[in-house]
Amino acid sequence: MAQQDTDQQHAGVLPVDDEGYVIDTEDCEKREAEWRERGTSRPITVVGNPVLHKECKDVTDFGEEFQQLVADMFASQRTAEGVGLAANQIGVDLKVFVYDCPDDEGLRHVGVVCNPKLVELPAEKRRLDDSSEGCLSVPTAYAPLPRPDYAEVTGQDEKGNPIRVRGTGYFARCLQHETDHLYGYLYIDRLSKRERKAALKQMAENEPRYPVVAND
């Protein structure tokens, strides 16, 4: 069983390390550019739109239409100057996110995760980082939010192969943030009522630097 799992991992889009986690730090510039150049940037959906506030559907079809969606997500992420983007942030009800994000050592990570699930961490790995957090769907607003400084996610790559992704620091925050999106949670939902109100006020008082979908 363990050997079969390893074979499946090596059949994926990205190589894996000795522990079975994807190696997403190689050829980042090339891989991101290849996706982005095939895509069309779409406006970002903002807080209040129903698609952001419900659990998304599982990805089951990894065909051409889905590949185009991923390309569009990379293009949209670059336009918005983001480090991660979930499908519902461009109005698509599917469990997939893309990322182009540094970790706490400055290493760049680029990849795609479908149907992600956060791995529950043992107590000894739950060191909280209370850095500030923002979101493309809550433009111009930031607030401190404690999250573990290490995260693991299981799921599938853009071809449907099983994958495991792990990250530290800022990248760990990104993995948690984007997985939250696909289950209907924004980072402001994890804030106190007062902090959430302050974040929404920041958003209301400033103009986003990228195209957004206005809520009716």
UniProtKB/TrEMBL annotation:
Provide the top EC class: hydrolase
Catalysed reactions, semicolon-separated:
N-terminal N-formyl-L-methionyl-[peptide] + H2O = N-terminal L-methionyl-[peptide] + formate
* Organism (species): Streptomyces griseoincarnatus
Q: A GO molecular function for this record?
A: peptide deformylase activity
The cofactor note reads: Binds 1 Fe(2+) ion.
- Cofactor(s) annotated in UniProt: Fe(2+)
Q: Tell me the HAMAP family matching this sequence.
A: Pep_deformylase
| Protein name (Swiss-Prot/TrEMBL) | Peptide deformylase
Q: Which UniProt keywords apply?
A: Hydrolase, Iron, Metal-binding, Protein biosynthesis
